[in-house]
Write a structure and sequence with these properties.
single chain, 332 residues, alpha+beta, seven-stranded antiparallel sheet, 35% helix, binds fe (ii) ion
């Protein structure tokens, strides 16, 4: 270290000598002007350059620092933008498929049920399972119910099985009021049951289950989402969750969308949060059905709706016959 400093001192001295002998060759006024400039430059260097660090070393350390900052920025950007649109609103998909390894707990549980023993978990998205008029009938059923109540926050639900309907900050039972207990016709209920059955068959086929292995379970419900500020926790639909943890009886979750992302509402895309630090989104499209195993392999959330109205039905299936729920029926 000391010998290094000595070397630098002698190098500085010889550089000074050289510059003095060169300047003596020039005329006197030039020399005095240059000297002034050189002196002030030298002063500047003395003031601001850290003692004992060569200019080349400074440049190198700056370059290393800048490269480090650049690498951090690139890595952060890469981590942030790790999101892909798995199924977009514009495309019509016969079937989009993504196999997944089941979470350990889910795999252990589902294998207890004979007809449900699956090797692989996963997710499917299918368009074209329903005709426009069937979808409008389903939407009509929901809107009829919404005349009698809706949430004061951003999420309203109607459960045609239990009769639960959002009203203000609470829920009412639409079947407990004689005026509303039979607002849906037999043919409307038949459309609802048919839609459920179409989806049940698709889940059985896609996941390779035995016929009759899965049953409708609770909660199965219509949902309406808007950008109204949340009033209660029931309005906060945007939290990442695993359905099996939120609703214990679920083994397969299906979602039937009744409105279009982009044109009828903004925000509100469905997001799978995957372990590979990748988010895969499904953009809702009227008639689109999303089906997935309800375990930890399918952590998900719904983005906040930023405008318009989003309509969907969450239809849940269980492998446990003890948790099956009956179809809705006309009440006397
Ligand atoms: O409506 C959706 O797209 C998803 C709703 C959901 O995650 C749920 O009901 O558990
Ligand atoms: Fe969910």
């Amino acid at each position: 270290m000391i010998s290094d400093l000595k070397q630098r001192n002698s190098a500085t001295k010889s550089a000074l000598k050289q510059s003095t002998s060169e300047s003596s060759k020039k005329n006197v006024s030039d020399v005095s002007d240059e000297k002034k400039t050189a002196n002030s430059k030298e002063d500047g260097k003395k003031k601001f350059r850290p003692m004992g660090i060569k200019k080349e070393d400074q440049l190198w350390s700056r370059a290393v620092l800048m490269t480090g900052v650049l690498v951090i920025v690139i890595v952060m950007k890469w981590r942030k933008t790790n999101e892909i649109t798995w199924v977009s609103q514009q495309e019509t998909v016969a079937k989009a498929k993504q196999p997944l390894i089941c979470s350990t707990a889910f795999h252990e549980e589902i294998n207890k049920f004979e007809g449900c023993a699956i090797k692989q978990c996963g997710r499917f998205v299918m368009d074209g399972l329903f005709q426009e008029d069937q979808l409008n009938t389903l939407l009509g059923i929901f809107k009829k119910g919404l005349q009698f109540g809706h949430s004061s926050g951003g999420a309203s639900i109607l459960d045609l099985h239990s009769g639960a309907l959002s009203k203000g900050e609470r829920f009412i039972n639409i079947f407990s009021n004689p005026e509303t207990k039979n607002i849906w016709s037999e043919s409307e209920l038949a459309s609802y049951i048919n839609a459920k059955e179409t989806i049940r068959q698709a889940v059985i086929e896609n996941f390779g289950l035995q016929l009759g292995a899965i049953h409708l379970t609770s909660p199965t419900f219509f949902s309406r989402m808007t950008d109204n500020p949340a009033k209660t926790v029931h309005d906060e639909y945007w939290h990442p969750h695993v359905d099996k943890e939120t609703y214990e009886t679920f083994h397969f979750t299906s979602l039937l969308y009744l409105s279009d992302y982009g044109s009828e509402f903004q925000g509100g895309r469905f997001v799978f949060v995957d372990g590979d630090n990748m988010n895969r989104t499904v953009e809702p499209r009227k008639g689109r059905v999303s089906m997935f195993t309800s375990g930890g392999e399918n952590l998900h959330y719904v983005e906040k709706v930023t405008g318009g109205t989003r309509y969907a039905i969450t239809i849940a299936f269980t492998c446990d016959a003890q948790h099956a729920i009956p179809d809705p029926h006309v009440r006397n």
